Amino acid sequence: MQILNCCDLSKTYANGENTVHALRNITASFEQGEFCAVRGPSGSGKSTLLHILSGLEYPTSGKVYYQGEDLFAYNDNQLSILRRRRFGFVFQAYNLVQELTAYENILLPVLLDKRNPDEKYIAMLIELLGIEDRLHHLPNALSGGQQQRIAIARALANRPSILFADEPTGNLDGTTGKEVLSLLKYVGKEMGVTLILVTHDLNIAEQAERIITLEDGSITFDSCRQEV
Fold first, then answer.
1. I need a surface site. Which of 76, 123, 143, 157 has the fewest CB within 10 A?
2. Which residues are in the ABC transporter domain (predicted)?
């Protein structure tokens, strides 16, 4: 079942007297539960695409549809609520709140939504990610891999239907990066979450069911469609 699609997405930036074309007429769709890696060299537009697909950034032109609804027909408040409830985010820099414990960071999206946490579900996430003994630590007392596991738990706390990951292993050593990637794949399958992951690393991209390659803001390859 298709959960997210975009049509003719373009994004341009003014750079002095020049115009930078970050994205050029991108059209793609994503199925519920699939794991898709978006790869390409630095400056290819992959992070821009992720930000627009997730509603963090507006396109210059084109549309994004989540479950058939135009993402950018929502006002800013509605879009913020949708992102918090239906999308999860994992970033290279973890983006944990330094003044909160690991457990408080995990609960943050739920509390921001003014809801009571599903303690049984949160406990399942914590066990799944192997972070039971780190819950009362502040982020600066955790290793990079532990921080990223906390960030993944936080991203999943609201039971999102899509998990967006932007270079989630970029700050980790090779072994820890493989562990985090395996966890992302596992929780995605276990929970039926669509995983859209941005990476410049072909070895990481090859772990996905589907690879989209961007170059100069355009899709040059989609493994679901072969050569574009």
1. 76
2. 4-228
